[in-house]
Request: fold
Amino acid sequence: MNVKVKAFALFREVMEKETELTLLESATISDLLADLALRYPGFWDMAFETPGVLKKFVNILHNGRNIEFLQSLDTPLADGDLIALFPPMGGG
Amino acid sequence: MRRRILTTASSNERFLRQIPLIGEEGQERLARAKICIAGAGGLGSTIATYLAAAGVGSFRIIDNDIIEESNLNRQILYRIGDCGERKVDIATRAIRDLNPDATVEPVCSFIDAMTVNHLLTGADLVLDGMDNYPARYHLNRACLNLRIPYLHGAVNGFYGQATSVIPGETACLRCIIPRPPDKGKVPIIGVTCGVIGSIQATEAIKHITGSHAALAGRLLIWNGVQGDVDSIPTLRSPDCSDCKRYNPMDEKEEI
Reply:
């Protein structure tokens, strides 16, 4: 299946604005992130605290829903999904 | 002192160039609007300036800080001689200088669970100029409960974000961002506050004048490093703790 990843703000320092990925049919968000880490040096260090634990600021939307409200890193993907990675801004 | 001639908002010469955009009815709606600006910092300064200039009639401006010299790179309501003064007092003066017809209510208060409902009651719109997520989540939740549209904005360095939360219709702030960044001072430059505050003010003007708030159900992210802006659709999460508390059938729900 094919999914599209959009990267925002800080993530643009290590990856393209949009990335099209071809993944196995059973792939999850976790698999997608592993794929991005292979493709983009620096991505893993930016996103992960330790293996399997995202840094606190990393927010991921799966078709508009935050994965915190889905199955987190185990959220299953489907063909045509849109994934957004962003670090929320906090200042004002 | 020159006396101003009382006129209706739409016949005021100050607004001649924008009435072709929003119409006389739109201008009157701006004059009747009651907005609340939560935070009179970098975002709040931009929002207050443009909405005062556009002819918004009533402002409640909430902040509990004193102006410091380190604010002046971005908080464009203030001047060097204002240091040491309360932000809400100088902001009030600046808004009235731009639009003498405006009513301004300065509120020097901290925004927390105890105060937030009272602080927002009566507002048609709430604009987010806060610098931390605990306060933003209080605003988000109170706006859901009070059914007030909440126009969110936030900045960090050359990056910024904005979205418009319409209670009962769109994702709320916590649906979109359940994982806030760590507390603490972030680098901020005035131009980013200008971009994001202007986007929030644009959303306010469109909402008040009856056209669609374009960022309802979308998160916009500005990237000033690469000169790029993009947005993504957002959806309500049924398990969001703030949205879950919001029940459109229960008009008397308390936070």
Notes: Helices of chain B lie at 19-32, 42-54, 87-98, 116-120, 133-146, 173-176, 190-208, 241-245. The longest helix of chain B spans residues 190-208. The mean pLDDT of chain B is 93. Chain B has one domain: 19-245.
